[in-house]
Design brief:
Structural class: alpha/beta
Number of domains: 2
Largest sheet: 9 strands, mixed
CATH architecture of the largest domain: 3-Layer(aba) Sandwich
Shape: globular
Oligomer: single chain
CATH topology of the largest domain: Rossmann fold
Number of helices: 11
CATH class of the largest domain: Alpha Beta
Helix content: 25-40%
Number of strands: 16
């Protein structure tokens, strides 16, 4: 099968059968590291909502984990009078749905973006969502490009080059790379981004995407697997490890442009959080709980420092026509 089909099947089983988050799980996301992360997103939403004229809107989250981010963001939004008309969580995992329902009993679950209501503007948050969606991989061989497949050999799974030429599937700007180069595409991610963008164009609102990734197009193998907070072989234990790949933000921007939405410049997570005031929030929390000051600073540093999550994770926003430019970004749009 293709790498994309392998990734979709493996992650489908993985997320349906467990809560992978936290110290007892396989990985930890930013909302689980610190309440400040979700609070900054809440500030971002409240500011954008206020400058849009305080309309009724629906809060939407794609792949909301345990619901931790939503709880922190919604609590912060409420301080500014910013209360959504509805809360919609796009989630397919029964295990994670149960965890989300405990924290957000008023929320409604949706199986896909197309099932979201169309009665109000949407403010959509996608934190570490796109990285878990399937990617196609292409490898340069002696006589051109081939799609990378997953094959069983001697009882083990391993990636191999397919037999059918696939040069047209590789972006033209990357086709000249030498033999052995791997190029990734993510058509499922692009399709979801496009559907979200057209929703924003029709209904109004905004979307915030935060994930580890790069400003493409670029070559390289980014497929990785994590188990018990360690990197492992992506092909060794399918369905029992978390498979992810770095997100090409330029591809997301390209998918959204056709809908006519505004696409923000790309920012690093560290810069974006600092511009929104995470340092001021740290001081406030530390003043209220002096015995936790060092712990809180460590949380902030993990989110913001370049050596931690600050540079690897990127942030991009998409806003409907007529909505103000979102806070936290500088420079020219993508």
């Amino acid at each position: 099968m293709t790498v994309a089909d392998f990734m979709a099947a493996a992650n489908g089983h993985y997320y349906a059968t467990r809560d992978p988050l936290g110290a007892a799980g396989d990985f930890t996301t930013a909302p689980e590291i610190s309440q400040m992360f979700g609070e900054m997103i809440g500030v971002w939403i409240a500011d954008l909502w206020s400058r849009a004229g305080s309309p009724a809107f629906r809060y939407v989250e794609l792949g909301p984990g345990r619901g931790t981010l939503a709880v922190d963001a919604l609590r912060t939004m409420a301080r500014f009078g910013c209360t959504p008309a509805g809360i919609d969580l796009v989630e397919t995992s029964p295990t994670l749905r149960a965890a989300q329902h405990t924290r957000l009993p008023a929320a409604e679950h949706r199986d896909e973006v197309d099932a979201l209501p169309d009665d109000a503007p949407l403010i959509v948050v996608a934190n570490e969502f796109f990285d878990a969606l399937p990617i196609h991989q292409y490898v340069r061989v002696a006589d051109g490009w081939r799609e990378r497949m997953v094959e069983r050999r001697d009882g083990l799974l391993a990636p191999v080059a397919g037999e059918i030429p696939a040069d047209d599937a590789v972006p033209a700007s990357l086709r000249g790379h030498p033999e052995g180069t791997i190029v990734e595409t993510a058509p499922v991610s692009a399709a979801i981004m496009q559907r979200c963008a057209f929703r924003l164009a029709r209904q109004g609102g905004a979307m915030l995407v935060i994930d580890y990734g790069y400003a493409g197009p670029a070559a390289g193998d980014t497929l990785q697997a994590v188990k018990a907070h360690r990197f492992v072989d992506p092909f060794a234990d399918p369905g029992e490890v978390d498979l992810t790949a770095h997100v090409d933000f330029a591809a997301l921007a390209e998918a959204a442009h056709g809908a006519g939405v505004f696409v923000s410049p790309l920012a690093t997570q560290g810069d974006w959080l600092r511009r929104l005031g995470i340092d001021a929030r740290l001081q406030s929390l530390a003043a209220a709980a002096p015995t936790r000051a060092d712990e809180l600073k460590g949380q902030r540093d993990r989110l913001v420092d370049a050596q931690a999550m600050g540079d690897l994770f990127k942030v991009m926003a998409f806003t409907a026509p007529g909505w103000s430019a979102p806070a936290g970004f500088t420079g020219d749009a993508v």
